Amino acid sequence: MFAFSTEEILLMIGRIWWPFFRIAGAFALMPFFSNGHVPVRVKVLLAFFLATLVGPVLPTPPPVDPLSAHALLIAFEQLAVGAMMGLILSMLLHILSMLGQMLSMQMGLAMSVMNDPANGVNHALLGQWMVMYGTLLFLALDGHLVALGIVVESFTLWPIGSGVQELPLMMLIMKFGWTFAMALMLAIPAVMAMLMVNITFGVLNKSAPTLNVYSLGFPLAMMLGLVSILISFSGLPGRYTDLCLDALTAMHQFVGGTP
């Protein structure tokens, strides 16, 4: 018969229990996994399966009683670390959502909003389309596999029990500014094109006041906006690939990885 001491049992439980919390925290905000259409049971079971799979090869966690207050603190720390890692990747989808919102406003489609009851948000039509495209492209680039690899490697780079005080939280805050900057960078070509169209209609309205510019301008602005999106969309995959690389690199550096 096999005989295990209390320390050995706690060690075996800790090898799965603590990684489960970090992986579950990452799944809560990571693209595709955090989608409301993915059932919570699937997320929990997948996190538990990955924790069971990688737990035996991870560094030895600290021997902590799972029923103590210290164990509860470590569990919250692992959830926070995983959630912050997933938040960095979730900004990729927010970039495309803001891009679609900017383009919709320029085309006069700001009121065309689609309700997403699964995620509890409202998206512009173009924004929702951009988010779906970004998710599929992220999966096509195997970004989800790279992200899972970084989460597993984080247990070596940032061992369990290291806390969250020493994490580069300022870098995470700066990523919010990066999100707005990248969305504006992607939207500038189409926005400038639509600005020139609006200026042209303004000049036409001044030179020919009797012409009904509003009935003519709205369909033309929408049509020219679609042409601008088509032209901008041709270079979007390459730019979005660079953004995915930047986000994954930032995710790796956040837990102490080298650039």
Automatic annotation (TrEMBL):
Belongs to the FliR/MopE/SpaR family. The chain crosses the membrane at residues 16-33, 40-59, 79-99, 176-201, 213-233. Role in flagellar biosynthesis. It comes from Ferrimonas balearica (strain DSM 9799 / CCM 4581 / KCTC 23876 / PAT). It is a multi-pass membrane protein. GO terms for cellular component: bacterial-type flagellum basal body; plasma membrane. InterPro entries: FliR, T3SS_IM_R. It is found in: Cell membrane; Bacterial flagellum basal body. Its main location: membrane. GO terms for biological process: bacterial-type flagellum assembly; protein targeting. PANTHER family: FLAGELLAR BIOSYNTHETIC PROTEIN FLIR (PTHR30065). Keywords: Bacterial flagellum, Cell membrane, Cell projection, Cilium, Flagellum, Membrane, Transmembrane, Transmembrane helix. This is Flagellar biosynthetic protein FliR. Pfam families: Bac_export_1.
